[in-house]
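User: For my dataset I need records formatted as: sequence, then structure tokens, nothing else. Please produce one.
Assistant:
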Amino acid sequence: MRLFLRISFWAFGIIFVIVSSIGLYLVAFYFNFFGTLETSGKNINSIYPENLLTEKIQSQLSYSSNNKQILFGDTHVHSTYSSDAFLWSLPLNNGEGPHPVSDACDYARFCSALDFWVISDHAEAATSTKWMEAKKAVRQCNAVHEKSKTPDLITFLGFEWTQIDADKENHYGHKNVMFLETAEEYLPEMPIGSGGVATDGMRSPDNLPVVRGNMLSMALFDFKNRNRYADFISFVEHIIDTENCEQNKSYDIKSPCYFSAITPKDLFLSLDKIKSDSIVIPHGNTWGFYTPSESSWDKQLSQDQNDSSRQISFEVMSGHGNSEEYRPWTASYSKDNMQFCPEPSENYLPSCWQAGEIIKKRCLENNVSVAICDQRASLARQMYVEGNLSGHFAVKGVTPEEWLDSGQCKDCFIPSFNYRPKGSAQYALALRKDINGIENRFKFGFIASSDNHRSRPGTGYKPVDRMVTTEANGPAIKFIEERLTPQELPSDIPREVNLDELQIPDPFSLWEPVRQSSFFTTGGLAAVHVDRRSREGIWDSFKKRETYATSGPRILLWFNLIETSKALPMGTEIVKKENPVFEVKAFGSFKQKDGCPDYNLGSISAQKIKTLCKNECYNPSEVRNKITRIEVIKITPQDSNNEDIDKLIKDPWKIISCPQKGEGCRVRFSDEQYSANGRDSVYYVRAIEEPSMRINAGNLRCDFDEFGNCNKVNLCYGNYKTSRNDNCTMMSEERAWSSPIYLNFN
């Protein structure tokens, strides 16, 4: 008996110690005794091989008629200094760990072989420490080529102003800011945030308990990577610990506090105080996952909300899809201060309408009368509309597949998810407002980018490794999915969308992240025509709008207005009475070889190429893809504030076939009606390549019925439901978009 008691005592003691130790560890983890902060890292101290750089330059200079180089870059890149990028880097979110700014430098130099790039982490997640590290990383990346005659990679500093609001009147969308200078005396102590939803989501102390709880759960299920989850807690704590600037005070460039510019006007006024010149690039205005359904460019067309000297470029394509094309439909419409659900139209099924169809189908299957089911369907549509960006919660227990292809632009090239046509480039260019006798117009140059969140600029060179080269992400196991998005039982009765009652742990679930994964692609590139391969040369081309966009491949494109004595390049604005004559010259991108070039560099290891580039680099063959056709778009800006936009955008205005012999295309065309019409006109072109494979080119991959309606979708999940080895590729006609040429008749 005594022996039994002794053994029991010792067993109890051991159990007590073990349980206490586990408990202490869990408490210590929750209150973050283990997490550390990331640095910006250290990049490879070696240039892109000079022989490869020379080949790259000569391969396109031989086609140029004016001895200008074409440089390719990415103006929209995130590291794990951005909150969403850090979240997606977590192993249980299918991530692969830290992606510091230095990785982006190395990737741009050796994997995608870009000529320039911009780091643009979210300002709303910034701290003075991280911003200082980012500046250091940019200088470090540029320092690599300082001793070479020709810079191989030019790096710019920037940030993203991430503005979001559920109210269309207060929503202005995202804008990237890039700076010319990199020296400390020209730059602010902190970037400029947006306030509102983005700031609350990334900086509110109320989020910390949820973050701690979620990270603790992940650490328990993925114990070997537990430190990574602890690091995220440190990341969030570091942001929250940064002091907010005093409200109602202007931006102080020397203050380390966090400043919110609530509107574009506030952003532009703040940028005025910074010594370095800056360029502002709006993007994502058609992205419906966070953009209110009726949001438009109209409210930004004023001298207050638009700085025409800075806001000179428009991102028509990114890893989120295309933002170029306008369509006449809308996801909802307003009348007498109320919102309503529109009926389906050609090439568009409103999601609010589909909500009614889902409820009606369930209702009829439960043997409820047709009259009552119709009532419930109508109520579901209205509740979806009133639910705004989270309208999908009006239907309980709905699966992503039940939405079919609702909310999507069915006839757009690689469209962004839940498309918002009034945020498109075409809509913006068609706008004109007379305010107190002063004409207001948007006059953008076009660029494209990746918006990659894994420190990988310029991912569009090959359709490889979808979980790294696109924004595809999601829970790696079912438990995490259920923890972040609790499952509900299906119901045939719609509900009012009340976010406070729903209490969703994952804020991204408010915006349909699962369906959105089928719309993530490798993104595009910005191209510039430069007189000199330098920081100043690139900047001057941006300022002159002598830029163009590609959907990822390095298509060569020239678009000129032919005058008597000279050719005026894309981006030109000119007063003209006579009928214009234009010339387009385009050459397809190089077909890519497998693998990477033979770098023969002692300072870059085979392991680095494997982990960073996945052994797939920009590796051109000597054969170019064919250009099949040139599409010309003509836009006549409004003559009055209320003129119908639908009639002003002609897309395409002309289609010109290209010869199939050879790899290039050179055509001339004129507008014989310009002078007679007597209206200002805007022209740009698309150069279309022969079909090639692209990740998520098919988006939802619909099965269609005999009438062309989508009756089943085959989603490309970013989570455990789709294999990492499945790149979800389909054929796509890659393209380049020229910047517009602006002809003013009056």
